[in-house]
Amino acid sequence: ETGVTQSPTHLIKTRGQQVTLRCSSQSGHNTVSWYQQALGQGPQFIFQYYREEENGRGNFPPRFSGLQFPNYSSELNVNALELDDSALYLCASSLRSRDESRQYFGPGTRLTVT
Amino acid sequence: RKEVEQDPGPFNVPEGATVAFNCTYSNSASQSFFWYRQDCRKEPKLLMSVYSSGNEDGRFTAQLNRASQYISLLIRDSKLSDSATYLCVVTSYNQGGKLIFGQGTELSVKP
Fold first, then answer.
1. Which of B32, B93, B98 to mutate to test the interface with A (most CBs of A within 10 A)?
2. Closest Cα partner for A85 from A58, A111, A46, A48?
3. Could you tell me which residues come within 8 angstroms of residue A61 by beta carbon, excluding any fewer than 6 positions away?
4. pLDDT tens across B38-75, in order?
5. What is the per-residue DSSP string for A52-101?
6. From the list A2, A101, A105, which residue is nearest B91 (CB)?
7. What residues contact A62, with CB distance under 8 A and at least 6 apart?
8. Quick check: A10 contacting B, CB < 8 Å?
């Protein structure tokens, strides 16, 4: 519906492992934001990428890192997974401009760390 | 204190009821305001933007009081399909446009 896709849909990892999540933006959008949503909470901002550069970061440790590619798709990498990293990871694409702050979310990747 | 706070839920209402959600935000520099709807285990979807003059979309009315840093959402004539979690969202341009979400209020509309 939004044109934003994420993969994989679900993922189970073991504590200490590393994970890469992927996101494809809506056509024409140049900005990607990543959010973590723990059960029963609202999404929390992880970071945002604009034209392949990090453009703002939330209160997440450095083991959360990302990339944005020339086609504006993006990856979220998490190293040394902890149990508390279990959550729904959402990416949202947008067209950065002064008057446009709407973000369109992908379906999310549900990560379970055991 | 959380940047965006919402009424705790859940709200359980009968079909046809009117229900109101409240939200407060702490950053007076906030510039854009939204209500998102999130169905169980799905992504948040934009329900409506909130403007200072207040705005209406069918059965939904949103209001913003900048002086009180307060946002509201009113749903009239509730439908079973309105059952979802409603997220109050705030953003400001000087924060790079990151969305700041409240914890959400769950609404359950019963027959």
1. B98
2. A111
3. none
4. 999 899 999 999 988 889 999 999 999 999 999 999 99
5. TEEEEE-S--TTEEEEE-TTS-EEEEE-S--GGG-EEEEEEEE--BTTB-
6. A101
7. none
8. no
Residues 32-51 of chain A with CB under 8 A from chain B are: 33, 35, 40-45, 48
Cβ-based neighbours of A88, under 8 Å, separated by 6 or more:
A36, A37, A108, A109, A110, A111, B41
Radius of gyration of chain B (CA): 13
pLDDT digits (tens, 9 = 90+) for B82-101: 999 999 999 876 666 789 99
Residue A99's contacts (CB-CB under 8 Å, 6 or more residues apart) are: none
Kindly state the tokens that stand for A4: 């934003």
Mutation site, A36, A45, A55, A104, interface B, largest B CB count within 10 A: A45
Q: Which two tokens stand for residue B44?
A: 């948040």
